[in-house]
Amino acid sequence: MAAPLTLLLIVGVSIRLFLFRSSLADIIAERVEVVSPLTAWKRVIEGLALLDLGVSPYSGDIFHETPLIIYLFHFVVDYAEITFMLADVITAVALYLAVKDYNTQVLKKQRFELEADRYPMDCLELVRSPTQMYYIPLKVAMVYMLNPFTILSCVAKSTCGLNNAVLGLFFLCTIKKNTMLSAIFLALATYQSIYPITLCAPAMLYIMQRLYIPVNYRWASFWWFVVQYLFIYLGSLFVIICLSFFLLGSWDYIPSVYGFILSVPDLTPNIGLFWYFFAEMFEHFRLFFLCVFQINVFFYTIPLSIKLKEHPVFLMFMQLAVMSIFKSYPTVGDIALYLSLLPLWSHLHRFLRNIFLVTCVLIACSALFPVLWHLWIYSGSANSNFYYAITLLFNVAQILLVSDYFYAFLRREHHLTYGLYLKKKDGSEATLVLK
Amino acid sequence: MGLLSDPNRRRALITLLTRLNAPICVVCYMAGVAWFMGLAFEPFTLRTYMSENAMGSTMVEERFPAGERALATGREFAAHKRKAGGMPVDWLVKTLQARGLEVFTQRFSRTLPFPDENKERYMVKGTNVYGILRAPRAPRTEALVLSAPCSPGENNNQAVGLLLGLAQYFRNQIYWAKDIIFLVNEHDLIGMQAWLEGYHHTNTTGMDWSPLQGRGGSIQAALSLELSSDVVTSLDLVLEGLNGQLPNLDLANLFYAFCQKIGVLCTIQGKLQRNDWDSVSGYSHAVQTMMLMVMKQASGRPWGDHGLFLRYHIEAASIKGINSFRQYKTDTTTIGRLLEGMYRKLNNLLERLHQSYFFYLMPSLSHFVSIGYYMPAFGLLAAILFMRALDLWVQLTAPPLPPEEGAAHVKQSSPGVLSVLTPLVISHVTGAALYALPIHFQQVAVEHFPVSETEAVVLTAIAVYTAGLALPHNTHRYKTLHGWRVLKLVAVLYLAVLLGCTALINFSLGFILALTLVPIAAFVTPHVPKVLSAFVLVFLSPACTLLFSVFFFQELQEVPVSFQEGWMLFLSVISQGILDHSLYGSLVYPLISLLVYPCWLLFWNILFWN
């Protein structure tokens, strides 16, 4: 399987190289769908220039990336293109390895269940076979590497690619049940954009599952593991934050990065839900609605963790999707990360209900973004409502997609417990209705 | 959400949609066409009204007295033009300076990719002359433009004369709050392009021009004047700009309001408006007017010198004087007063024109159809595509398979992607060839065949287009049961997105393409009779659509042509399309060649799927 993966990486890198060399790169780097005020390369350059002049890069209102990123590019700014391509390659390989390992686990678990006769007889068609799953890791890597969203994000040199690489490594370490590295990478991801803090829950759940620690608060080993994980996580977060402080010599970056993410002062249009809403809002409601909007990202962790505590990887996928939909400055790069995990759930296809509609809407919206932007900004004939309508539709489609997968997942689990062909009490065929 | 989550209701809905698919599609198509035709019916349209407060309620008084003197200046200009054998730059500079304006010139040159046979030009060199009247009442941050093209021959001398007359008159007034720029541009659109690029410091088309020495503020509105006779019977308003962009409707309203006030006959598309909307002839007149607008907008070319302003977010229109055999004549003083009134109202603007509509169709000058009314017509056509896609999707995901085809099912999934990708790539490469080859191969063609450059370009385009039909598209070796369905699903969705985007930018083009391409997309399968369907497919292909549009347009303009002349016109329209793309950046030619034509090829491919 190494050969196809290598081929895939070469194809992906050549497409990116070609685009870097073409005149399209400049146009892509300006697209609001691809870069956000947080991740724009232009702003990183500005920060670097300020740093070189001996001024704090956060002194203007331009730069909002973290200090580690700016010190990283302080050294590799001449190799920026290679860095971003490398980040994509790392993510793809990490996802590939992680999914491969995860699939082995799934098959092993399934074999135990089969041997223990836990599945009802008519569910054998739901059982997954190794041949079906053979190509899934490659598909995941392919969807990430060749997804137009990822390619655009990389060509625009959006730092989102680096965040994705960190998240990919975190995913890999978690699947490989490496508590230490998992917590460290999670701390790094959190340091980059706050929101990955919600991934704590799935990571802990998964590693506990693999280490045969029961998820039960009456067990001491459960608490011991949680304390251990949180200690490494918070400890490394603390170290990274202090390191940033010592690098810069000031706490400037805390309000400028995290304050910027949480209080959403920049209302440049993007594919998220914040900008239009907060541009329209009366100032004295702002704080309230800010809390309402931000809580979306964090709040779903609790019910989802309770519902999906047996399936932490699916929980992680849900969390990634929720983050990329509800975060304050989303870009297409964030979407690409969770889209690349979709092949992992290809066995759910028979239970998906709206996939056709959702796919159509997502494709149409992606095409309409630049058109409506052109009509609004360049011709001046349309206005922001047109663009926001598409943003809204795009996000609704994403939410439908995620909830559809959620439903399909739960339904498959239900069938695995109660049998595929459900009967009503009177013996007629029953249907499942979600209400 | 009940509909989306309740499986029983979903199933019922999907069964209904798949079983009644064909009738629903036919009904949608009919309804779409009927809706579109209904747009010209007066009770369904809105009356135009002035939305901009700054131009609506304020009163202005028009006092321009010097029409006769303007005509005399025009005659003087004509004499100097004849003597100079082109634009009399020195005389214009002197005259504008004598009127107390700041005068500047701009030189430009441009070599066309191939000779333009309609206007007989290849290497174009020219000079623009413009004078700026500085606003006495405000800090010169905004400007208005009045332009008149200096055309070869005896055309348009009166327009330049009137422009100079207005410059002299405006100079003596004290109420101007915006700079007024009087521009005489040579070589019509090319000169205008050079001037606008110079004014805005952009260079999008690779033209050579000298930088502008003087500038006014940001331009708020512009009018282009075309006047070739001393008296006119009516004034015609031209709105259609580059890529089908239209100026804010308030500009048209302003023109209409002043024509009503001063009592000048005004037309749009050269058609007077009629009051007998309830009679058949009245309705067909409105349809004719609207169809002319649709055809012009769909062509994506600028239909007057104003057309290039729109790209810079400047509201602009052309006003053409028409002298026909009607008894009632309007003299130049009246036209001057009309322009004065319009400029005084534009002078009152506090912000850019934005209150009124940007997306509209006009069945007459006093009525319009806004985007909310005409989009459903397109939506009904696009719904057909969605229905067909849904139908295909249901067929593709339907689990029961006929037993004799079960064997093919095993191999279905892996070649699926490849069998779709190959035709997609091949048809797009053909499209790219259609886009790039005509201009690059003209030299070769001219050396080997007895044709002129322009003919070479057009004939190469047609040759590539035809050759695309003969290309082998399928490289798949084994039969797949669903192969063509997957391809058709992709093609139908592709067409839907493509037409949707086109219709948003240029409704007319999107609608015309939808009218012809949607039926193809709906009916093509490998199982329909080949010869007949191939004929229908070619008949409805983009090139034939263009050919019919040429005849239809001539018919609408009431100058029907024979087939021979129509064919020549068709050829010249193709060359104009390519020229418009390389000179002004019109998007119609790349859109057709790079996207629409490949999409059509996909359907052609489905027909011959074996």
TrEMBL record, chain B:
| Compartmental location | Endoplasmic reticulum membrane
Task: Give the main location.
Answer: endoplasmic reticulum
Q: Which UniProt keywords apply?
A: Disulfide bond, Endoplasmic reticulum, Glycoprotein, GPI-anchor biosynthesis, Membrane, Transmembrane, Transmembrane helix
- This protein's GO CC annotations: GPI-anchor transamidase complex
Kindly state the subunit structure of this protein. Heteropentamer. Part of the GPI-anchor transamidase complex, consisting of PIGK, PIGT, PIGS, PIGU and GAA1. Interacts with PIGK.
Per the entry, what this protein does is: Component of the glycosylphosphatidylinositol-anchor (GPI-anchor) transamidase (GPI-T) complex that catalyzes the formation of the linkage between a proprotein and a GPI-anchor and participates in GPI anchored protein biosynthesis. Binds GPI-anchor.
Its name, as the record gives it, is GPI-anchor transamidase component GPAA1
Q: What organism is this sequence from?
A: Periophthalmus magnuspinnatus
Q: What is the lineage of its organism?
A: Eukaryota, Metazoa, Chordata, Craniata, Vertebrata
